[in-house]
Design brief:
The protein has 144 residues and is mainly β. It has one domain. It has 1 helix and 4 strands; from the N terminus they run E-E-H-E-E. Strands 3-2-1-4 form a 4-stranded antiparallel β-sheet, with no helix packed on it. The radius of gyration is 20 Å and the shape is elongated. The protein binds zinc ion (ZN). The site of zinc ion has 6 residues, from loops. Zinc ion binds next to loops. Pfam families: ALS2CR8. InterPro entries: CaRF. One of its GO terms (molecular function) is DNA-binding transcription factor activity.
Length: 144
């Protein structure tokens, strides 16, 4: 499954209103319920899987631990599911949403991708010249 997926029905996902994460991207309160349908990790191009030859005669292997974390979410945008105020109860909305999904209703949704790029301090063993871009990461996505 890749980041192009739009499938939120074949697997059960938690209904969320916001998401905190120690290393992944944070998702703020949107006023609408959402589900995380895909997660991916991108390694730095100097990461363990990739050997990198520097220009010139010197070839050096580094194992940079920096990673970018990606979350793809589906947001349920129907006004019936909106809860503008964080303080309002949301359990009924979640219940109605789950029931609507179970009935296979055609819901209005939109998709968003959140990315948390590693800070410069997360990289080890290599520099940052202009010919050596860090973002976007060049590694292949890996489902976790
Ligand atoms: Zn790096």
């Amino acid at each position: 499954k890749s980041l192009s997926t739009t499938d939120y029905k074949s697997k059960r996902h938690l209904v969320k209103w916001q998401a905190e994460s120690s290393h992944g991207p944070k998702i703020p309160y949107l006023g609408m319920p959402f589900m995380v349908i895909q997660r991916a990790t991108y390694e730095c191009r100097h990461g363990p899987l990739h050997e990198h030859s520097y220009s010139g005669s010197m070839s050096k292997k580094v194992a940079c631990p920096a990673k970018a974390y990606v979350k793809k979410i589906v947001i349920f945008t129907d006004p019936a599911f909106r809860v503008e105020e964080k303080s309002q109860p949301r359990y009924k909305v979640v219940k109605n949403l789950k029931a609507a999904i179970a009935r296979n209703e055609n819901l209005s949704v939109s998709y968003r991708v959140y990315v948390k790029f590693p800070g410069v301090e997360c990289h080890e063993g290599h520099g940052f010249d202009e010919s050596d871009p860090v973002n976007p990461p060049s590694a292949v996505p890996k489902a976790d």
